[in-house]
Amino acid sequence: GAASAGVASAQAPAGPTPTYGEPIKGLCLFGQAQAIALSKVGSSASTQLSQFEKDTEAELKSQYAAILADDKALSGQKASMPDAEFQAKVAQLRQRYADFTSTRTAKSNQLSQTRKDALAEIAKIMIPAMSATISDRHCAAVFERNGAYGFVPTMDITADVVGRMDAA
Fold first, then answer.
1. pLDDT tens digits for the chain (168 residues)?
2. Pairing mode, if any, of strands 27-30 and 141-144?
3. How far apart are CA 8 and CA 163, in angstroms?
4. How many whole angstroms separate alpha carbon 119 and alpha carbon 84?
5. What is the DSSP string of 34-49?
6. Shortest CA distance to 134 belongs to which of 147, 125, 143?
7. Which residue among 53, 106, 107, 134 is least crowded, i.e. fewest CB within 10 A of its CB?
8. R_g over Cα of the chain
9. Structure pTM?
10. CA 153 – CA 29 distance, rounded (Å)
11. What is the DSSP annotation of the chain?
12. What residues form DSSP beta bridges with 30?
């Protein structure tokens, strides 16, 4: 636990770059996150999702600011307003807060679903590109490259997959 956390967070002293041996025939490495980020389709999806997120955030921030301003104004009017009218306006304000919470949840769910849909669309391009690359490179096994401490660069099929994704 705590002892291993200290070891993991300690900085390794700078040393010589390792020299790796020969590539292992049939063993390939693939960086899925890198392929998504570097491909045209992944980059486009990322840009669109980012814009959707910013637009949604701006919309929600504006709505919330309006509710807060009305809440503050209502608090200032309490002394000059009949209690029944004040309570009615408080009830309306509470309903606006509740509606805002529902809207925020719906927008969050919509964004999450949009991310899932985008990944599904990317997968429609990435999986055939990856399959063709695996066949062409005669990979007997493919591992996530981010799990490797180091490797011979020729074993990495990520760039080939990205090239095929971009061509598609």
1. 444 444 444 555 677 888 899 999 999 999 999 999 999 999 999 999 999 999 999 999 999 999 999 999 999 998 899 999 999 999 999 999 999 999 999 999 999 999 999 999 999 999 999 999 999 999 999 999 999 999 999 999 999 999 999 999
2. parallel
3. 36
4. 53
5. HHHHHSHHHHHHHHHH
6. 143
7. 106
8. 27
9. 0.72
10. 9
11. -HHHHHHHHSPPPP-PPP---PPPTTEEEE-HHHHHHHSHHHHHHHHHHHHHHHHHHHHHHHHHHHHHHHHHHHHHHGGGS-HHHHHHHHHHHHHHHHHHHHHHHHHHHHHHHHHHHHHHHHHHHHHHHHHHHHHHHT-SEEEEGGG-S---GGGB-HHHHHHHHHH-
12. 144
Q: What are phi and psi of 142, to 5 degrees?
A: -125, 130
